[in-house]
Amino acid sequence: MRRHLACLWLLVGLVLPSQAEDWPQFLGPNSNGISREKGLISRFPENGPTIVWRKKIGIGYSAPVVAGQRVVVFYRRGDSNVVECLDARRGESFWKFSYETDYSDAYGKGDGPRSTPTIAADKVYTLSAEGILHCLGLRDGTKIWQRHLLRDYQVPRNFFGVGTSPIVEGNLLLINVGGKGAGIVAFDKNTGKEVWKVTDDGASYASPVAATIDGQRHVFFFTRRGLVSIAPQTGKVRFSKYWRPRINASVNAANPVVAGDLVFVSTSYDTGALVVKVSRSGADEVWKGDGILTNHYNTSIHHDGYLYGIDGRQERGARLRCIELKTGKVQWTKEGFGCGSIIFADDKLIILTEQGELVLVEATPKAYRELARAQVLSPTRSQIALANGLLYARDDEKILCIQMTK
Predict the structure, then answer these.
(1) 59 within some domain
(2) pLDDT tens for residues 348-393?
(3) Range of the domain at 176
(4) Which of 44, 112, 121, 365 can pair with 331 through a Cys bridge, CB separation 3.0 to 4.6 Å?
């Protein structure tokens, strides 16, 4: 028996990459799409990447999240929103929590959830397209508390429903709610009670990002109006920068990207990117411009002073591009790449395209260097998640677990 256990742990050690970590929220541990994992593959087997397991789910753009041996996925099936917790290595269901929904997208862009769950300690937070916020127990899916944000804060209906994802900061759950006097709201993460609310900023489809700069803690929101920095424990607005398209029929959807004391935001609709340098006295503009790295909805990735992201609007064709963060200088462009969800790990970009192709690209400013490509899913806009050597990706029919270690 002891020999069997020893062999088992040896095999686990061979499978798990170094610096393995969880992926508990949208865009990973630090909300920036960056993983510290090493020992990942740079090529796919001849028949494509190894699928560890697959499981049928429902519709939605909500991304998987991972904590320990648990994967949480949020989807819609029929007239129900479903939060399901799966075994990370086997795909077996631990529990499901469901509730009725009548959300219907006015523009035909899908009726499932957009917001990605957030896992913090022993709790899971989900936010549906119709604005229902749940706190569930991670162990068994028990409902701990619930809020109906659009009703509670009299928020006007957005173009494509609610799409921002919550972030936990200390004992607070922070959300770009979008109400009058309640643009950004902090809730007690254990009870759901409001702690503070600030701004009149409408809700966007971007999610907040927390960072410490020059000894000050910030949570950066890219709201419908623009970039806002909040002191999370008090709700004090440290600074705000107006940055949104001129036309009303538009959205801000890509997350802020924080690199040292620089913050990058980008939107489409003839507006483009803005970079500011943050200090204790506020934020100063470094550069701005359209047609440099104009993000429609995919968040760009920062690595070693360069940004890698999707330039161009989804409906009009988009390209993969690398630029220098400090100057905005374009390093290379891969035309016709299309939109896709991007993360960085082990010196490479892992990209799930909108057409369901999984692509590996060397993360270098020298040139576009594609390492591998394989069709793995039907068309999708969901973000991917990487945890403990396994990649989780979904479309409107299924979720896949893909082996990414050598």
Answers:
(1) yes
(2) 999 999 999 999 999 999 999 999 999 999 999 999 999 999 999 9
(3) 25-403
(4) 365
